[in-house]
Automatic annotation (TrEMBL):
InterPro entries: CobU/CobP, P-loop_NTPase. This is Bifunctional adenosylcobalamin biosynthesis protein. It comes from the Bacteria. The gene is cobU. Pfam families: CobU. Catalyzes ATP-dependent phosphorylation of adenosylcobinamide and addition of GMP to adenosylcobinamide phosphate. It comes from Rhizobium lusitanum. GTP binds at residues 13-20, 38-40, 55-58, 66, 88. One of its GO terms (molecular function) is adenosylcobinamide kinase activity.
Length: 174
């Protein structure tokens, strides 16, 4: 897929690499209305505390949308020229799709087809999970494989791609 019409930015990195902070700065620096699409779900107290802390850290300048499954529908619903939208994160979305037994290939295709049509500036965050050892169980291997395929598709459909390590961005595309 060509990124010629895309305004999307893909931010990829490991856990606690600084990717979310970097992505938030990309959105804030646009001066556009800030929207945050959270794909995570609060399954336990620790995750509820994490979500609350992230909201507090972002402050009142962000409008938050919680969307664990129907990401493309949510993005389409809030798509507008005057908005910058941060999606955090795609790997949690992959997990949610797997747990809901959704058609993953169709969901990925819908997202990557949407990216070049979006009017809003989209910044998508995801965890790089393919740099470590081969997982020891089938579900974890399927997750890693799905995430790797999605990352390739989103990178191809995005105008810019960054890899974040130790809080430092490496621009890979755009």
């Amino acid at each position: 897929m060509s990124s010629s019409n895309s305004r999307s930015v893909f931010v990829l990195g490991g856990a606690r690499s600084g990717k979310s902070r970097f992505a938030e700065s990309l959105v804030s620096d646009t001066g556009l209305e800030r929207h945050y699409v959270a794909t995570g779900q609060a399954w336990d107290d620790e995750m509820r505390e994490r979500i609350a802390q992230h909201r507090a850290d972002r402050g009142d300048l962000w409008q938050t949308h919680e969307e664990p499954i129907d990401l493309v529908a949510r993005l389409a619903a809030i798509d507008a020229d005057e908005r910058s939208v941060l999606v955090d994160c795609l790997t949690l979305w992959v997990t949610n799709l797997m747990m809901a037994e959704r058609d993953i290939a169709a969901e990925f295709a819908a997202l990557t087809a949407f990216l070049p049509t979006a009017r809003a500036r989209l910044v998508l965050v995801s965890n790089e999970v393919g740099l470590g050892i081969v997982p020891d169980n089938r579900m974890a291997r399927e997750f890693r494989d799905h995430a790797g395929r999605l990352h390739q598709m989103v990178a191809a459909a995005s105008a810019e791609v960054y890899f974040i390590a130790a809080g430092l961005p490496l621009k890979m595309k755009g």
